[in-house]
Amino acid sequence: MSGSALPHTPPLPRxxxxxxxxxxxxxxxxxxxxxxxxxxxxxxxxGQRTLLVDCDLGLANIDVQLGVRPxxxxxxxxxxxxxxxxxxxxxxxxPGRNGGxxxxxxxxxxxxxxxxxxxxxxxxxxxxTKLAPHYDRIILDLAAGIDPTVLRFARAADRLILVTTExxxxxxxxxxxxxxxxxxxxxxxxxxxxxxxxxxxxGRRVFDQFAMACNEYLGVKPKFAGAICRDPKxxxxxxxxxxxxxxxxxxxxxxxxxxxxEALGAG
Length: 267
Fold this sequence. Notes:
Helix 7 (about 200-220) links the parallel strand 7 (about 190-195) and strand 8 (about 225-230). The protein has about 270 residues and is α/β, with parallel strands linked by helices. The chain has a single domain (about 20-265), classed as Rossmann fold (3-Layer(aba) Sandwich). The protein has helices at about 30-45, 60-65, 75-80, 120-130, 150-155, 170-185, 200-220, 235-240, 245, 250-265, and strands at about 20-25, 50-55, 90, 100-105, 135-140, 160-165, 190-195, 225-230. The chain is built from ten helices and eight strands. An eight-stranded mixed beta sheet has the order 3-4-2-5-1-6-7-8, sandwiched between helices.
């Protein structure tokens, strides 16, 4: 790691580097950022030291959802003021606490980084590689859409997790991301999460239709990570800027997230 001082003691190095999960969606409004935070908390509660990175470089909002105030963010890294490891902010006590994890925040409320050069994206990806030995999981919350920056981050990950809903526009845009990565030569078998569905069985049927299209037209075989049922406690926790399992310990949506973490761990 860099010689720059972290705002807290980093987790000790592991013998193997953490796998990098890229959380993506072709379309905004499907709950991707919320899910990224929930996965980070669930992995933390499962004893996995987790780093969450807000890679929405134009309109970042993870820190806003969580109600935290980071002292540094990706903007400082891109501008050359800090190394990536010096932009880490502990959340809920940081790794090793119940549900705690580390966060590298984006630059909230600014579109200034939305069009950064791909070499700067590559520099961030390299910094993540250096951080990986200190964590069990690294989660990248990508921007919505399929612009080159998003695709570059997706290709840098070990595992692509696509978040969609049963809305036709969300499924079409998720398919477009798989198609573009396939055309770029990426060897991907994306994991798919169907969010805000009526039931887990309904979510499974939506996934089956999506997977059939990917397999038939692209030769790509997505994997089913799970479905998350629509839960009124989710928007309530977002408005309160409090993580769902903290504000509503007994909630259907978080139970679904735990199932997804188990599926991803087994995969």
